[in-house]
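Hi there, hope your week has been kind to you so far. Please have a think about how the structure follows from the sequence. I've dropped the whole record in just underneath, so have a look:

_____
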Amino acid sequence: MQNLFKLLGKFGFVLLFVFLEAIAFFLIVRRSNYHRVVFTNTTSEITGLFFSWYANTGDYFKLREENELLAEENARLRAEVLYSKSRFYDRNTEVYNPVQAFTYIPCKVINNSTRNARNFFTIDAGKIHGIKPDMGIISPNGIAGVVRQVSDRFAVCISVLNTSFPVSVQLRKSKDYGSLEWDAVSPVYSTVKYIPTHVEIEPGDTLETSAYSSIFPEGIDVGTVDSYTINPDDGYYLIKVRLFTRFTALRQVYAVDYLFRSEQDAIEDSVKNERR
């Protein structure tokens, strides 16, 4: 109580002045139509700004939830497109019907490297989310990598920017295929080998994943032809490709689950064993 009296003694005149000013202001606004209108408009504007700030703040904190919902919706839509289907022959109808072959799991990159010869990135999804080794990883713009090791909640993936990770790709316009192999020079470019020189190519041609892979569906974007030469060692094209995926800004990605992988691997392994 003594401290309260000291505070009032020190700031009493200031508090009294503020109190009297408030009364004067109240009387002016009450008795003057002009000042009442000005006060009302000013109060409405300040209140509107406050509620706008409050709403924007709420939207910001809801942004993560909305992004997750959007990623799940994109994964569902990707599963519906034609390149996620395989054509199987129906003996009853004697026609080829599209059957779901690929599904997608949305996840985020939480760690990433681009400066090494063998780069990896980590995603925030693991066994409990359905992630398995050898699943392909794609970004909204193109291919990104393949799952190598998985724990319950995380997975480490080999990046396309890895000198030990070749990917089967093809020219979109002709379907001639080759091998995408990073040369450890730039995170923006990679190299395609083994496309024969009788194939007509031009700068700007699009490269996509081929059908000769159980990691990615056929038709996923890879990049565009930047330039090309002929490799003197083997006589094939040596193509410099500008990648669609921005690996230095890799965030939202999708794990690709090939539903018939075990069946395909089993029959291919049986043939390999016969050859031995």
